[in-house]
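Supplementary notes for students who missed Thursday's class. We covered one full example, reproduced here. Read the sequence, then the structure, then the short commentary at the end.
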Amino acid sequence: MVNERNTTRACSSCGQHTGPSGLRQLVVREWTCECGVTHDRDINAARNILRLGCEPPSAGTRYPSPSPPSQQANALRGRISEDDG
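Structure (token representation):
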């Protein structure tokens, strides 16, 4: 099971929490991270959730927060990008 907390805020490329936060920011559907990558909020969250689901659980951590992608998740993300178009 994956905790989706912060998956819309965390950049799926670099892991920084630079996305919009708070209830008033829910209307923001696209945002650009400080690393230069532009994200659709829902697609970014889906990529983060996919990556978290593929990673082994962290020792002593009940709910891992999004962090920089692993090599396995990068390979899966490439497959998602191919499907997008």
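Commentary. Residues 76 and 82 are 10 Å apart (CA to CA). DSSP finds two helices and two strands in the chain. If anything here is unclear, bring it to office hours.
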